[in-house]
Design brief:
With 201 residues, the protein is an alpha/beta fold. It contains six helices and seven strands.
Length: 201
């Protein structure tokens, strides 16, 4: 029987915090929130998590922040069109790869062991759950908006009034998506490294 929904917001590198949120399905309450940094921290969380077979996991797709050459390198990767003509548009240093493969081996191993693991794209999920703001992504205003929306629109009264880390808030979004998956309200939108990427129908 599925009793918990677990969201994991995976940072693109160990210098950017990851967040984990565990939600109890029967009460719709958060029972665990934490910040993680290195992949060994993520591995330690999964090693110590005893309810793997009774949980649904939703893990975010981190952006690939590999730096490019040229003045336009900071913002171009996530908006650049993907071309099929490899000879005309050289994919030097894999610059067309939008998502990082960080943690893929660990998640594939968990899936092979029988855990219910899916991936999600944070901003697509926020749009579907009516949690998307007009502020710059991951800015303090965006963080405050998301925290307030989770408290008042989704009933997480236990969230504090002071500013929480964005990684933890995005992990709660993953937990909400995992809860929707348990209810059969999600669909597969594409596949990434052998795992389905889901979103609300």
């Amino acid at each position: 029987m599925i009793t918990h929904a677990v969201g994991l917001s995976l940072g693109p590198s160990s210098s950017v915090e990851s967040g984990v949120a565990v939600m109890e399905i029967s009460t719709h309450k958060l029972i665990y929130l934490d910040k993680l940094f290195s992949m060994s921290d993520v591995q330690l969380f999964f090693d110590n998590y005893v309810s793997k077979n009774n949980s649904v996991f939703c893990v975010s797709l981190p952006w690939d922040n590999t730096m490019l050459e040229g003045k336009w390198r900071v913002l171009s990767k996530q908006y650049q069109l993907i071309h099929n003509d490899e000879e005309k548009f050289l994919n030097r240093d894999n610059w067309m790869q939008r998502f990082s493969t960080r943690g893929c081996e660990l998640l594939s191993s968990l899936s092979e062991q029988g855990a219910d693991v899916s991936r999600f794209e944070v901003y697509l999920a926020r749009q579907k759950l009516n949690l998307y703001s007009n502020y710059k992504e991951r800015s303090s205003a965006d963080c405050k908006f998301l925290q307030s929306a989770l408290r008042f629109e989704h009933g997480f009264d236990e969230l504090p009034s002071n500013m929480m880390p964005m990684g933890e808030l995005e992990a709660i979004v993953g937990g909400l998506l995992a809860e929707r998956k348990i209810k059969g309200e999600t669909e597969n939108i594409f596949e990434f490294k052998g795992l389905n990427v889901i979103n609300v129908k």
